[in-house]
Specification:
Distance between the termini: 84 Å
Shape: elongated
Organism: marine metagenome
Strand order of the largest sheet: 12-13-14-16-15
GO cellular component, one term: membrane
Order of helices and strands: EEEEEEEEEEEHHEEEEE
Radius of gyration: 27 Å
Helix content: under 10%
InterPro entries: Ig-like_fold (IPR013783), KIAA0319-like (IPR029865), PKD_dom_sf (IPR035986)
Protein name: PKD/Chitinase domain-containing protein
Number of helices: 2
């Protein structure tokens, strides 16, 4: 079947995989440049350098895993590729001794090694009391096998009841609260080799004093990066500007408007005349002040649009 490399290195070196973390006992990137050779029956069958140009032990030019500014003739891969060959791709190296800046010696490939899985509990969520919240661990993966077991455990917040605790996706209903409350859940996954990893996700209900959109627009520096709560009527409906994203505008009784944005799109589409409550983070894109990562509650539909804000100024004429 052939032989090959799976090189584990440091995050700042492109095209060198560091699945097991860095530093670690099997991380071979320790110099600049650095390289590794594969010997079979006393012969070099593959030799790769990275973070610079090198010759192998027999004086031949090594294949380069990372671009060389002066000469990319021997560059092996493209952006984001690890050093992969046919053979036992996905198995780590055991390092007996480091040799920075030269060919690494005393490294043994363990073909029976098993990488741990990568747990992914999903992104943190902002929800409202009474919402059915889905915890989604389906983004978890195993680089050299399959995930065979999921376990969800609540680690913070008032007690809630999960629909299950051993599935990739589980759900619960956010309780009614009178103050900002966060629930934290720990997802542990196990692969077919018996290895485990875990990841946390936070679910928060914010209880905030509502502010006007006028206040946000006139005092952006104060609210930049802050979580706010506003109500307003949709003036430019969702799906009209960018169908592949949630992007629409609301206006409140102050007469000012603000963009609501989320990528990927939210499950619901909001139309002109919908009266909604929005909790999210204030930011700015180009010239638009916007609220991102929104949690939205529909309060009503077919509302009249608020009267627009009128700016009056002296142009010095």
């Amino acid at each position: 079947q052939g032989y090959g490399f799976y090189v584990i290195g440091v995050a700042t070196i492109p095209n060198v995989d560091y699945t097991s973390g860095f530093p670690s006992s099997n991380a071979i990137q320790n110099g600049d440049p650095d390289g590794i050779e594969l010997w079979v029956n006393g012969q070099i069958v593959d030799a790769v350098s990275y973070a610079g140009f090198m010759n192998d032990s027999e004086g031949s030019i090594m294949e380069e895993a990372t671009p060389n500014d002066s000469d990319d003739e021997y560059f092996e891969g493209g952006e984001g590729l690890s050093i992969g060959r046919i053979g036992v791709d996905g198995s780590p190296w055991n390092v007996d001794a480091n040799s920075p800046g030269t060919v690494n010696e005393g490294q043994i490939l363990d073909p029976n090694a098993d990488f741990p899985p990568n747990a992914n509990a999903g992104a943190d969520q902002i929800v409202s009391s009474g919402d059915v919240v889905t915890l989604d661990g389906s983004g978890s993966s195993d680089p050299d096998g399959t995930i065979v077991d999921y376990l969800w455990e609540q680690t913070a917040g008032s007690d809630v009841t999960l629909s299950a605790n051993n599935l990739a996706e589980v759900s619960f209903t956010a309780p009614q609260v009178t103050e900002t409350t966060t629930w934290t859940f720990l997802l542990t996954v196990e692969d077919d080799g018996g290895n485990t990893s875990d990841d946390e996700v936070n679910v928060t209900v914010y209880i905030l004093s509502q502010i006007t959109i006028y206040d946000i627009q006139e005092n952006f520096a104060t609210y930049d990066g802050q979580i706010v709560n506003v109500v307003g009527v949709v003036t430019i409906g969702d799906g009209l500007l960018y169908p592949s994203k949630t992007k629409f505008y609301i206006q409140d009784e102050s007469g000012r408007g603000i963009q609501i944005y989320n990528d990927p799109p939210l499950d619901r589409i909001y139309n002109r005349g919908d009266y909604i409550e929005v909790t999210g983070t204030v930011t700015q894109y180009a010239d638009d002040v916007e609220i991102i990562d929104p949690a939205i509650t529909l309060l009503g539909s077919d509302y009249d649009l608020p009267e627009a804000h009128t700016a009056v100024g002296d142009e010095g004429l």
